[in-house]
């Protein structure tokens, strides 16, 4: 009962945050000194044609009314214009890109598999490797292994993604020629090629994001190993692997779950730089295109999607946290 | 040294145990050649203050000391040297032959695993049994430690249980492997006195039923008298005295043992049924007033003697926490009246959750009240603002329980003591330094102590700094919230003595909050007993402690163990009669 209430309150507050983010995004983009109608009005652009384009796109209304239409469009869908030239945007409609002649939602959904493959694959890699290396460093505290892990993770924490990405492309792609350096192959086409093309971006992303996990895991593990309940676990005769793997590790992962959710959520919203470096047509490069073309509806849609990814990841983190730490359900 | 009646058939023989932490000049020699033995079915108590090496000795038996510890000597369990065991051999002993009960039940259990998980795991650590069978055994163990609703508790997480319940779980866990020796490290120190009595009764009962030997580590002579057959007194890593419980407690040979014994309260056995039934209103006997119902439905009235000069008056005080958005409200203080006359010490006694610290918070202005009034020297701090409020705050000094966390670790002792003077007085420069010096001398920390940092001081010295800071402005009222419960008994005695001297010198009144009846009998002129947010009894300290009227006060007094095995047996029976 308490668990259900906890879950509902988390999901509810997540939805509220999304509406607030949508509102702020709308307000900010409305202030941009650009007129989407101007871009699609054609040449020569007579004032009448411009006005027609504005009316067609819905840009002739005050911005807060536009926001209202946007919100209702999410639920009911929207129709731009009327008669033979009308453009349909089915629910859930997150806007319509007049430059791409497609609903924003479908544009994002088209690009999503790329970003999803990139982000989830890298996240799994860095979480597993980061925690494992961190635990090892803690258990072998003060040894050469510990110092080596520390040194390497400092590089990971401080190096920018484009530097490591380009270095990786140069070394593994061109000099050694072992992995492909760019492009994306859909999973449905060839799972092997899919993975093969993703290896380099996965490793680079995991190295950069995972370094923090190594350091955090090490510190947490050292702290937890000094806790009374670890001593109790040892005193009752449990093997050391159970003491570390069950009693200590569950408590070590608690703060990591929060961090992981934020990192993964951020990446799902589009790994802008990584996608550009490795030539991946994901949500991040869609966002870059939208900026380049001043495609306002698309820019709004991708920004909102990025916010959604972070908020959703946070809700999931809160729910998982409630499962992992029974004390969290109290609040 | 001492001739001790060593058991004929020892289960555990500790021979010249020696533990050193670290190496080189910074090495700490924690245990220095300790020898004793525990007979089969015997309860051996190891008594000592912090730093005596008693806990280190206990931990060494199961190889639970940190890696920096070097252990010498032998610990023979049925002829097998525990100190020589490593890896899998050591694991086979842990929990199965020697099991441990720890001091802090709140932190001894893993917060993210259920009670059932942790118990079943202990069962399966040494026996190849299926999960379901381990679960059934866990349920049975919870029944054996007499935990209410054992099936429900199996699914619960540690934070859902009280401290006493958790300690029962820890004991059940220790019993899971059917050990021959139970090492209990301060098993009741973290518990309230009435809960302590219950857990001690449980331990005594289990020892009788299972025939296990117990190595009891404690600082409390009352606990020793209650449970032990023989006693080993330790100090600074060495054995001071060994003997049967009667011999050591009745006729200690060593001065140090006598000192430890002096700290235990000498309390009479309360007579149950002292409350005449039938009438309405509170029960009175002289200046002593008690509530008639148990639990009390309202606090006893507080009568201020005519013409008394009152330093603190609390009237109809209520404090309620939470209660919004479907959370459960906690009525921490439910209508309390009390006063402290000028220059008087009122002892406020109660167990955890009784509301005594919340009340102290209201008096020092740190907790907002829901209703009622608090007047310090005739003024209510809640109605004051700005300079008037600051002025009034200067008239209340506060000393908290843990001196290690109430002093700024980056400030020197002199800076800490000077801070209230800088805020409230015009003293600066040389005059300020002289005043700080004078205050530090008053708490017996002269000379160079001002330049030291808190971590360079002992616990008792730190608390003396905190006291110097609290009395720096010459307050009308000193609020002392468990000021000595983090200290060793001998240190506690010195701090209490110092408080008495300072009171004579500065003439402040004192609201002294404690759970310890020995302390309250030593310092307080009057006593108020709190239970569930209400004052159930108040009156002159001697009367309330010697002839308690209210059933809760009687239980509290009877539950405090005394340092005499025969007297303690009598009290145990009285407590059992009162508690049932």
The largest sheet of chain B, given as strand count, sense and whether it forms a barrel, is: 8 strands, mixed
Contiguous helical run count of chain A: 13
Radius of gyration of chain A: 24 Å
Order of strands, main sheet of chain B, comes to: 11-12-21-20-15-19-18-17
Describe it.
- The complex is a heterodimer of chains A (331) and B (580).
- With 331 residues, chain A is mostly helical.
- Chain A is 73% helix and 3% strand.
- In chain A, 36% of the residues are buried.
- By secondary structure, chain B is α/β, with parallel strands linked by helices.
- Chain B is 37% helix and 24% strand.
- In chain B, α4 runs parallel beside α7 (163-175), α8 packs across α21 (551-559) and α21 (551-559) packs antiparallel against α22.
- At the A-B interface, α9 and α10 of A face α2 and α7 of B.
Please supply descriptive tags for the structure shown above.
heterodimer; A: 331 residues; mainly alpha; two-stranded antiparallel sheet; B: 580 residues; alpha/beta; six-stranded mixed β-sheet; 21 strands; globular
Question: Helices and strands in order, then pairings?
Answer:
The complex is a heterodimer of chains A (331) and B (580).
Chain A lengths: L1 H29 L5 H4 L7 H11 L5 H14 L1 E3 L6 E3 L6 E2 L4 E2 H36 L4 H15 L2 H15 L15 H35 L2 H8 L4 H29 L3 H6 L5 H11 L2 H29 L7
Antiparallel strand pairs in A: 1-2, 3-4
Helix pairs in contact in A: 1-13, 5-6, 5-8, 5-10, 5-13, 6-8, 7-8, 8-10, 9-10, 10-13, 12-13
Chain B lengths: L9 E12 L6 E12 L3 E5 L6 H8 L7 E9 L2 E2 L5 H7 L4 E4 L3 H4 L6 H10 L6 H14 L5 H6 L7 H13 L5 E5 L7 H18 L2 E6 L2 H7 L2 E6 L2 E7 H6 L4 H8 L20 E3 L2 E3 L19 E12 L8 E12 L3 E5 L6 H8 L7 E6 L9 H8 L2 E4 L3 H4 L6 H12 L4 H14 L16 H13 L5 E5 L7 H18 L2 E6 L2 H7 L2 E6 L2 E7 H6 L4 H9 L5 H15 L1
Parallel strand pairs in B: 3-8, 3-9, 6-7, 7-8, 15-19, 15-20, 17-18, 18-19
Antiparallel strand pairs in B: 1-2, 1-4, 4-5, 9-10, 11-12, 12-21, 13-14, 13-16, 20-21
Helix pairs in contact in B: 4-5, 4-7, 5-7, 7-8, 8-21, 9-22, 15-16, 15-17, 17-18, 21-22
């Amino acid at each position: 009962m308490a668990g259900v209430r906890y879950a509902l309150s988390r999901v509810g507050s997540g939805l509220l945050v999304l509406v607030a983010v949508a509102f702020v995004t709308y307000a900010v983009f409305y202030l941009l000194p650009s007129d989407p109608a101007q871009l699609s009005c054609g040449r020569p652009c007579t004032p009448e044609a411009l006005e027609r384009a504005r009316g067609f796109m819905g840009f002739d209304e005050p911005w807060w009314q536009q926001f209202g239409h946007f919100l209702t469009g999410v639920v009911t869908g929207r129709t731009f214009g009327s008669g033979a030239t009308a453009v349909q945007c089915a629910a859930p409609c997150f806007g319509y890109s007049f430059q791409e002649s497609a609903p924003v939602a479908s544009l994002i959904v088209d690009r999503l598999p790329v970003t999803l493959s990139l982000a989830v694959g890298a996240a799994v890699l860095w979480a597993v490797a980061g925690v494992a290396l961190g635990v090892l460093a803690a258990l072998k505290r003060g040894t050469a292994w510990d110092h080596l892990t520390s040194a390497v993770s400092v590089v990971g924490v401080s190096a920018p993604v484009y530097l490591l990405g380009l270095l990786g492309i140069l070394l593994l792609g061109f000099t050694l020629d072992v992995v492909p350096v760019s492009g994306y192959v859909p999973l449905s086409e060839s799972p092997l090629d899919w993975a093969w093309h993703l290896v380099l971006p996965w490793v680079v992303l995991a190295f950069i994001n995972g370094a923090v996990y190594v350091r955090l895991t090490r510190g947490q593990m050292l702290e937890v190993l000094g806790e009374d309940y670890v001593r109790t676990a040892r005193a009752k005769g449990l093997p050391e692997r159970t003491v570390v793997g069950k009693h200590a590790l569950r408590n070590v992962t608690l703060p990591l779950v929060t961090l992981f959710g934020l990192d993964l959520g951020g990446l799902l919203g589009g790994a802008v730089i990584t996608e550009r470096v490795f030539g991946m047509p994901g949500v991040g490069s869609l966002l870059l295109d939208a900026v380049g073309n001043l495609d306002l509806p698309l820019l709004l849609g991708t920004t909102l999607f990025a916010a959604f990814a972070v908020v959703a990841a946070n809700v999931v983190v809160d729910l998982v946290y409630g499962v992992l730490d029974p004390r969290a359900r109290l609040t | 040294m001492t001739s001790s009646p060593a058991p004929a058939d020892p289960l555990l023989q500790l021979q010249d145990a020696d533990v050193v932490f670290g190496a080189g000049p910074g090495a700490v020699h924690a245990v220095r050649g300790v020898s004793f033995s525990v007979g089969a079915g015997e309860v051996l108590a190891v008594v000592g203050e912090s730093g005596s090496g008693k806990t280190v000795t206990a931990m060494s038996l199961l190889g639970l000391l940190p890696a920096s510890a070097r252990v010498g000597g032998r610990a023979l369990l049925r002829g097998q040297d525990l100190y020589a065991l490593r890896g899998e051999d050591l694991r086979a002993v842990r929990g199965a032959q020697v099991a441990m009960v720890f001091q802090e039940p709140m932190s001894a259990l893993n917060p993210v695993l259920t009670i059932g998980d942790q118990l079943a795991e202990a069962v399966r650590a040494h026996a190849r049994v299926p999960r379901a069978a381990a679960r059934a055994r866990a349920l049975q163990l919870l029944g054996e430690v007499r935990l209410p609703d054992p099936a429900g508790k199996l699914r619960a997480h540690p934070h859902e249980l009280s401290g006493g319940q958790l300690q029962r779980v820890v004991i059940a866990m220790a019993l899971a492997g059917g050990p021959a020796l139970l090492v209990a490290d301060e098993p009741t120190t973290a518990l309230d006195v009435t809960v302590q009595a219950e857990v001690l009764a449980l331990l005594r009962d289990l020892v009788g039923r299972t025939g296990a030997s117990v190595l009891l580590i404690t600082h409390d002579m009352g606990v020793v008298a209650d449970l032990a057959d023989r006693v080993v007194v330790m100090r600074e890593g060495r054995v001071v005295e060994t003997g049967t419980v009667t011999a050591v407690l009745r006729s200690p040979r060593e001065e140090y043992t006598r000192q430890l014994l002096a700290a235990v309260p000498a309390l009479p056995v309360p007579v149950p049924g002292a409350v005449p039934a039938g009438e309405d209103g509170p029960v009175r006997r002289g200046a002593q007033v008690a509530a008639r119902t148990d639990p009390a439905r309202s606090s006893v009235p507080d009568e201020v003697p005519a013409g008394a000069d009152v330093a603190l008056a609390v009237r109809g005080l209520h404090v309620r926490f939470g209660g919004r958005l479907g959370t459960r409200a906690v009525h921490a203080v439910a209508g309390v009246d009390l006063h402290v006359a000028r220059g008087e010490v009122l002892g406020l006694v109660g167990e955890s959750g009784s509301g005594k610290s919340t009340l102290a918070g209201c008096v020092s202005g740190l907790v907002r009240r829901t209703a009622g009034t608090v007047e310090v020297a005739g003024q209510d701090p809640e109605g004051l603002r700005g300079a008037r409020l600051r002025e009034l705050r200067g008239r209340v000094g506060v000393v908290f329980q843990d001196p290690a966390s109430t002093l700024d670790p980056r400030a020197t002792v002199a800076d800490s003591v000077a801070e209230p003077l800088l805020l409230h007085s015009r003293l600066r420069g040389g005059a300020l330094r002289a005043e700080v010096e004078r205050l530090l001398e008053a708490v017996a920390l002269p000379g160079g102590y001002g330049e030291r940092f808190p971590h360079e001081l002992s616990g008792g010295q730190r608390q003396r700094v905190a006291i110097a800071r609290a009395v720096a402005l010459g307050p009308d009222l000193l609020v002392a919230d468990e000021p000595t419960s983090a200290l060793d008994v001998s240190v506690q005695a010195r701090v209490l003595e110092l408080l008495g001297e300072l009171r004579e010198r500065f003439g402040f009144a004192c609201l002294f909050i404690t759970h310890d009846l020995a302390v309250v009998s030593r310092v307080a002129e009057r006593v108020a007993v709190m239970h569930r947010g209400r004052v159930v009894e108040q009156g002159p300290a001697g009367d309330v402690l010697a002839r308690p009227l209210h059933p809760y006060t009687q239980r509290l007094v009877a539950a405090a163990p005394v340092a005499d095995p025969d007297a303690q047996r009598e009290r145990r029976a009285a407590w059992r009669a009162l508690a049932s």
